[in-house]
Amino acid sequence: MKPIEPTDVQRVIDGFANKDIYLHLETTNGAYATHNNEDFFSAGAYIRNALVRYQHGKIIGDNPYRIGLKLDIGWIYAEGLNHYEVDEQGRLLTAGLDSTGKLAVALQISTKPFE
Amino acid sequence: MEKERQVLVIFPHPDDEAFGVSGTIALHIENNTPVTYICMTLGEMGRNLGNPPFATRESLPKIRKKELQDAADALGLTDLRMWGLRDKTVEFEDDDKLTEKISEAIQELNPSLIISFYPGYSVHPDHEACARAVVRAVGQIEETKRPKLNLVAFANNSIAEIGEPDILHDITAVEDKKIASIKAHRSQTESMVATWAEKMKNQDPTLLNAIRRERFWTYKF
User: Fold this and answer.
1) CB-CB: which of A31, A35, A115 is closest to B156?
2) How many domains would you assign to chain B?
3) How close A90 comes to chain B (CA, Å)?
4) Nearest by Cα to B131 from B112, B150, B157, B106
5) Do the domain assignments include residue A115?
6) InterPro entries in the record, alphabetically (chain A) (predicted)?
7) Looking at the domain assignment, is residue B193 inside a domain?
8) CA nearest neighbour of B91 among B132, B57, B60
9) Is B53 in CB contact (< 8 Å) with chain A?
10) Cβ of B56 and A30 within 8 Å?
């Protein structure tokens, strides 16, 4: 993955619009957050291979970025994104990595189910 | 260390064995005791992707699978079994099926010693789910035929609640193998190992002690 280039990411997001896509969305503080700091309130969510279709999507912000996808009857968004890759299967992999490189958020789009 | 007939190690993630157990594994193998390591997931949800990142969410499982194999090779471990569950979902699996799967492995291998996590004191939800399933499976065996359970606890309240570990292994004799196996889990351990160089040079007693002494609690039903 490399630092997000918003123009390139926008182009890829546009390419998936109005198609059935499989979505991976994840936020995490890590399973040890409360172990390392008892006052820390750990929360996160995870969805893998949600089959959705979006009318349009947008990347916005000034590093880190936000990506929002407008569905016919709802929304998907993620914030804190700063790295991306379009992998060899043409999937858009975006992630938010903290200052030590640890993943905090991921939003990924594919036309085929993720393994 | 007692000579065992067969050792069975069960953990949910590649690298769960690295810091606290890999020296004990290497000692058993040097002692010609067969050791089987069941690793339930490939640590797909690991947060470390390298810094700068050399992995993605999607390439991480493939990388960690290779690292796990390399870590096993470093210890001389030949019976490595990957169960293909998914990281952070172990606690949501069907409890009875998970117990059954472990019971089958126990039946096949007939271990005299099982090493896993201590339920209630192992912090990560997958560790806890693994620990509960292992204890359930062993609990179903007739008392006189049960293998010993040596468990790893590292929750902050462990010693306050379950006391000091009753099993201590000095693994200095195999510490090179242990360090090699820790390093094999590169995606997860690289940044930590980098901080060791200076301490190793100065023979830092805290670090050496942490590496050389492996601690277990015997589970009592």
Assistant:
1) A35
2) 1
3) 12
4) B150
5) no
6) DUF1806, YojF_sf
7) yes
8) B132
9) yes
10) no
Which structural domain range is residue B201 located in? 7-218
Q: Which residues contact residue B194 at a Cβ distance below 8 angstroms, ignoring those fewer than 6 apart?
A: none
Tell whether B124 is within 8 A of chain A (Cβ): yes
CATH code assigned at A103:
2.70.180.10
The answer to whether residue B201 sits within a structural domain is yes
Residue A91 contacts B where some CB pair is shorter than 8 Å = yes
* pTM of the complete model beyond 0.90: yes
What HEC string does A86-112 produce?
Answer: ECCCCCEEEEEECCCCEEEEEEEEECC
Quick: pLDDT tens for B166-188. Answer: 999 999 999 999 999 999 999 99
Partner-chain residue, chosen from B53, B56, B125, that has the shortest CB–CB distance to A101: B53
B43 vs A contacts (CB less than 8 Å): none
Per-residue pLDDT tens listing for chain A (115 residues): 999 999 999 999 999 999 999 999 999 998 888 888 888 899 999 999 999 999 999 999 999 999 999 999 999 999 999 999 999 999 999 999 999 999 999 999 999 999 9
> B26 and B18 in contact (C-beta within 8 Å)?
no
* Assigned domain for B200 exists: yes
CB A92 within 8 A of CB A16: yes
Q: Please check whether residue B1 lies inside any domain of the structure.
A: no
CATH number, residue B128: 3.40.50.10320
A51 located within any domain: yes
Contacts of A1 in chain B (CB under 8 A): 49, 53, 56
The ipTM is 0.87
State pLDDT tens for residues B112-170.
999 999 999 999 999 999 999 999 999 999 999 999 999 999 999 999 999 999 999 99
pLDDT at position B60: 97
- Chain A residues touching B45 at Cβ < 8 A: 26, 28, 46
